[in-house]
Amino acid sequence: MDSSTILVICLICLPLMQAGTTQTCEQIVTKWTLWTEPSPGLAATLKVPVTQEVTAWGVSFTFNKEFSNLDFFNGVTEDHAGHSFNVTNEDWSGNKHTGDLISFSMLGDYKQGNEEDLVITDIGLNGIILCTNQRK
Question: Structure pTM?
Fold first, then answer.
């Protein structure tokens, strides 16, 4: 391939690679409250931007720590312990339009373990990673 063909391919692919991704998850995590007593806990709210029409959604995310219990509000999940979660829509909240926000909250207890602060390492919507806080 010559350099002009490679340039055209890069220009076509660049918007696709950037679609829906941000450098960190700070724009999505709109509330983040931690406490240490009686045990380490978290109250957080995620507001996930919708970039295309959907009739059902699943927001996946991973923490760098293990949760012994995590409850969700305005979203459904089978998992309430661990470090990876997938929250899906309620029956009434699946239809979302471009520009909408998927908003849900969580409240739970986690295991502090090492001294590293609790963070969400990545957030995805319907299988597409939107942001990452992973250190490289």
Answer: 0.80
